[in-house]
Specification:
Length: 85
Amino acid sequence: MSRFNENEGSRQIGNGYIEINNGIMTVAKEGRTLNTGSIGLYDSFEAQIDKKGIIKGSIKIDVLNGKSRLELVNLNGSIDIALQG
């Protein structure tokens, strides 16, 4: 996971593995990291992938490094393109 700021550019803030089961996407409990808040925030990730590979979802995340401000970020992408929000 990364964030982009015009002043700082792109910055990696965490990572994890996406699991897909019957079109429902979740972040695996093992191997996930998050630099801007509790890794438990990954549990707020909700996403679905359709048969064409289109992904829509959201996650509640602290997008500002060093600040305590959670935001619901809507995510869009596809199986071939990274999720963006």
